[in-house]
Amino acid sequence: MCEISQDSRIEAVLAAIHERRSIRRFTAEPVSRDAVEAILDAGRWAPSGLNNQPWRFAVVWAGDPRQEGLAGCTKYAAMVREARVLIAVLLHRPTMYDTMKDHQSAGACIQNMLLAAHALGLGAVWLGQMTNQADKALEVLGLDLAEYAFMTVIAVGHPAGPGTSQRKSLAELVLGEF
To answer: Which of 47, 173, 30, 178 lies closest to 106 in space, CA to CA?
Structure first.
């Protein structure tokens, strides 16, 4: 077994965090089932309060009629239609114990999934705007609002181009001295 140094691990994780971008255009190349499983597995390893792991996932492959239904739940319909796979991230209400903490853990889960997609050479985007149509999205997915809370859909595919992003300086974000 090949040992990876701590410095290499640190470098790889920080590089992934700095390099990952939201990808909003995808090629028609399919995404493998193994890649989707790796993305889901990364989400599963996110931290959660009391280790309750309240997240659940619904996977919608390109061409599934639910893809078009989800496109109707967002102003970013083109991204949904172009994606080769959509991963709906939900919270299982009976497993939840604290709304704020469970929503925070869903965010960690989603970030893990975005980083995994990046590491696999895929592009992904977190479609947060779709929460405005959460009830409709759950209906499209055939899921019960009483059992699941809709968090987001992650659109995944092979990037049709690079993503771009700018960040504020730490001086603008840190309150006080560090």
So the answer is: 47
The tens digit of pLDDT for each residue in 24-78 reads 999 999 999 999 999 999 999 999 999 999 999 999 999 999 999 999 999 999 9
pLDDT at residue 21 tops 60: yes
Instruction: Quickly list H helices, the chain.
Output: 6-19, 33-44, 65-71, 77-82, 99-119, 134-141, 170-173
How far the first Cα of the chain sits from its last, in Å, is: 40
How do the residues of the chain divide into helix, strand and coil, expressed in percent and rounded to 5?
45, 20, 35
Are 77 and 140 in contact by the 8 Å Cβ rule? The answer is: no
State how far the Cα of 102 lies from the Cα of 98, in Å rounded to an integer: 6
If residue 154 lies in a helix (H) or strand (E), which one and from where to where? Answer: strand 148-157
* pTM beyond 0.90: yes
55-61: strand order across its sheet = 55-61, 85-92, 148-157, 123-126
Q: 């280790």: which residue's tokens?
A: 51
Query: 170 in helix, strand or coil?
Result: helix
